[in-house]
Amino acid sequence: MTSIDEKLKLMAAGGAGENCDSGLEKDTWAFDSMPGYGPGASAADPIPAAAPRQGALPSEYKQATAAELDSRIRAAKRTLGDRAVVLGHFYQRDEVVQYADFVGDSFQLARAARAKPDAEAIVFCGVHFMAETADLLSGDEQSVILPNLAAGCSMADMANIDQVEQCWQELDDALGAGPDADGLAPVIPVTYMNSSAALKGFCGRHGGIVCTSSNARTVLDWAFERGRRVLFFPDQHLGRNTAKAMGVPEERMPLWMPNKPLGGMTPEQLRDAQVILWNGFCSVHKRFTVRQIEKARETFPNVRVIVHPECPMPVVDAADESGSTDYITKAIAAAPAGTTFAIGTEINLVNRLASENPQHTIFCLDPVVCPCSTMYRIHPGYLAWVLESLVRGRVINQISVGDDVAIPATRALERMLATTP
Ligand code: SF4
């Protein structure tokens, strides 16, 4: 099957098909120097001033052909042997995933890093918050490397530590800080894995916890045993979909708008809230619609529709199932041959699932090619650069979380691990 990168190149050459942003068809180096997050679904998301930018890649990597980069990456990996482990996220392009020693979601990959304590370097082909998490869970002597520093996540950047501290102060003023007569805290902070280490550290300092899309329900149960309310950030959709499935009424899940006083809520709304949702979202998953599901059902009456819980609530409600990338992968593997699946998640993963499972018909709900554009910033040229630098004894693009953040952030992660071993 044609990879997403090849498809975009075909489109650039006038081939059939449509993508969500013509900038995606430009060559990688033009793409990489674009302002903001670059083209793609997150093009309209405001990028924080402090978001990391990548310095210039040496020209030898920009000028190398795909075949040259391939042989250089393979040679560097052979030389490094067990000294370096390459991790590839499910949403990463095939041209990079082919070199990964492990492929998985962000948490599976952080665990994979932990399972390789002898590797000196962990090369994380994902986005910034994932490399931070790998640094938190890996050994002190290990270096975590992000091949392109500009590979961020627009959803993670929708909640920063200053905004969350401000919100916490306002909640404290409105609801008080101490436990009630039942010993429950007024609010327990819960952060999605897709957040900066600073926010994980915030949760660690305030009796909170981290969750993934696989364990969000278990983590919310944990939080409700300890608090009256949950402050859930940064993804409103995962929070809303999970809490709704647990029976929390929508009117008790107000949306916190970070730039408005009291998040834009009345004190009564706040007091009545069970889950305070942060106004963040994933621009890739926000593109899926109920109409796409209806169309899939019109075309394939027996289609099984599975969407990621980062999709908006009406989309999750209209689907047959919703679940994490791990859930989707396992559901497809377990289905009887000949099943037709319409999947609502990032297109690199959907395409890969389709080619790995030829016994089924698998397609992406969104007919328009729209990869996660920040993840897409990891090009084989960057991978060759960081691996060959390691061969020469140089660690570049290291992601390192300072102890002041790492200690409480690890505490919040350990709470999650204890909840869902
Ligand atoms: S798919 Fe969405 S949540 Fe995942 S890395 Fe890309 S922008 Fe972030």
Q: Oligomerization state of this entry?
A: single chain
CATH class category of the largest domain: Alpha Beta
Largest beta sheet: what is the strand line-up?
A: 6-5-7-9-8
User: Overall pLDDT, averaged?
Assistant: 95
How widely separated are the two ends?
37 Å
DSSP summary: helix tally: 18
By CATH, the superfamily of the largest domain comes out as: NadA-like
Secondary structure class reads: alpha/beta
Largest beta sheet, briefly?
5 strands, parallel
What would the CATH topology of the largest domain be?
Rossmann fold
> Which regions contain 5 or more consecutive residues with pLDDT less than 50?
none
Pathway: Cofactor biosynthesis; NAD(+) biosynthesis; quinolinate from iminoaspartate: step 1/1
Protein name: Quinolinate synthase
Pfam families: NadA
Keywords: 4Fe-4S, Cytoplasm, Iron, Iron-sulfur, Metal-binding, Pyridine nucleotide biosynthesis, Transferase
Topology (SSEs and partners):
Layout: H1 4-12, H2 28-32, H3 59-63, H4 66-80, E1 84-89, H5 94-97, E2 102-104, H6 106-114, E3 121-125, H7 128-137, E4 143-145, H8 161-175, E5 185-192, H9 197-205, E6 209-211, H10 216-224, E7 227-233, H11 236-245, E8 255-256, H12 267-272, E9 275-278, H13 290-299, E10 304-307, H14 313-318, E11 321-322, H15 325-334, E12 340-344, H16 347-356, E13 361-364, H17 380-391, H18 403-419
Parallel strand pairs: 1-2, 1-3, 3-4, 5-6, 5-7, 7-9, 8-9, 10-11, 10-12, 12-13
Bound molecules: iron/sulfur cluster (SF4).
